[in-house]
Amino acid sequence: MFIKENTLPKSLIHIAINYTLNIFDNLKEYVNDGRCEIDNNSTENAIRPLAIERKNYLFAGSHESAQNIAMFYTFFATCKVHNINPHTWLCDVINRIPEHKANKLQELLPHNWKPRILDM
Q1: In a domain, 93, yes or no
Q2: What does the pLDDT look like over 38-64, one tens digit per residue?
Q3: In the predicted model, what is the mean pLDDT of the chain?
Q4: In the 8-state DSSP scheme, what is residue 14?
Q5: Percent share of the chain, pLDDT over 90
Q6: Single pTM value for the model
Q7: Which pLDDT band holds residue 83 (cuts at 50, 70, 90)?
Q8: In-domain check, residue 1
Q9: Average pLDDT, stretch 67-92?
Q10: What integer is the mean pLDDT of 13-23?
Q11: DSSP 19-78
Q12: What is the domain count for the chain?
């Protein structure tokens, strides 16, 4: 067993022991709670497309265009989280906006959206 005091302060093993001791309470929580994941891969994978697109905003042409692109990516990401087809949502919203009350536009946001049922 390694003892911290028996290692050189700048050695890799000393640094590793210090690191482990500093996060030991979190490690205990991970072991005791089965819901905790050992890594954050799922989060990293979820935000990767946003990080890639953020670089693309540099070439949007203007600040306003970059904001518009970011807004649409946010809409489409919200659709994905709520298992909504972004094309279906966008077509429906574009068709409904002219007759929709301005003070109720939040109803058309992806997380609030309910598809319109058309009479046959």
Answers
A1: yes
A2: 888 888 887 787 777 777 777 778 888
A3: 85
A4: H
A5: 31
A6: 0.53
A7: very high
A8: no
A9: 90
A10: 89
A11: HHHHTHHHHHHHHH-TT--SS-HHHHHHHHHHHHHHHHGGGSSSHHHHHHHHHHHHHHHH
A12: 1
CB proximity list for 61: less than 8 A, separation 6 or greater: none
Look up the domain containing 68 and give its range.
61-108
Would you say 93 and 113 are in contact if contact means Cβ atoms under 8 Å apart? yes
The confidence score (pLDDT) of residue 117 equals 74
Q: Which of 51, 113, 106 is nearest to 82 (CA)?
A: 113
Copy the structure tokens of residue 40.
């954050």
Does a structural domain hold residue 40? no
Separation of alpha carbons 99 and 108, rounded Å: 12
Domain assignment present for 10: no
Distance CA(94)–CA(108), nearest Å, equals 10
Contact (Cβ atoms closer than 8 angstroms) between residue 2 and residue 18: no
Residue 30 structure tokens: 């991970």
How far is Cα of residue 24 from the mean position of the Cα atoms in its chain? 27
CA distances from 22 to 13, 27, 30 (A): 14, 10, 14
Q: Is the pLDDT of residue 72 over 90?
A: no
**Residue with the two structure tokens 């070439």:** 59
